[in-house]
Design a protein that fits this description.
About 5% of the residues have low confidence. Strand 2 and strand 3 form a beta hairpin. The protein is flat and about 70 Å long. It is built from 9 helices and 6 strands. It is of the alpha+beta class and 238 residues long. It has a 3-stranded antiparallel beta sheet with strand order 1-2-3. It has a 3-stranded antiparallel beta sheet with strand order 4-6-5, covered by helices on one side. Helices cover 53% and strands 17% of the residues. The protein folds into 3 domains: 81 residues, no CATH class; 66 residues, no CATH class; 85 residues, no CATH class.
Length: 238
Amino acid sequence: MCLRKLEGILGHSFVAEIKSFNPIGLNELEARILEASAHPLAPWWATFERDVEASKQTGVLHLSDSSLILLSLLSDLLDIEHLRNVDRILKALKNRSTFFSALFEAYVAAAYVRMGMKVEIVQESITGEKTCDLCVSDGSDIVYIECKSLDDLQLKEGRQWDELHQRLVSLLRQYRRSWLVIIRSGATVGHAEKECIINAATEAIRIGDPTPRRLVANIYFAEHGAKTRLQCTLMVGQ
């Protein structure tokens, strides 16, 4: 019943897409890569369906943390679905890169609605001008709110680390190296940083010898006018 209500709000085609998520039969790395490429709601939805089935079989209510988050999202959306411009939040929820910020925005908006405040969801500017997310009023004063979640950035960076992991494993297998690879980053790892790490690691792995040694590749990136160090340490495993 809960999932049907949520599906009605988010749309049947979107839910059909996230329900195709299935990590069964994959190894740990493959499952992580699949999860990183999937919409964040996909594993939560699958977990909720498993929780429902387990509850039916055991006769005891079983709800994991992700299922509780899903139910909380449904509650928030039901409380704000009457608000003008709610489609902006729904659109952001369906976008993998803005999902967590939209999840937080729905939570904040619903909290103020439950407090009896007048809540306005601000539409994005068509000119690209920066705007707030919510306007909240108690009838006399107005508060402008911007909602952001760092989880969106972590999700984006996590995909880069997973791809980096996969490519380094392939390199080590290709050149038959039994190495421990340690990467320390002083900056967010995006596509450019990932490729620099791969290039440095490829050369080190290609010319590697069997004697124990430690190689440190210091890579510098210009960020906001300052240099940020990214250290890539490769150690021979015994």
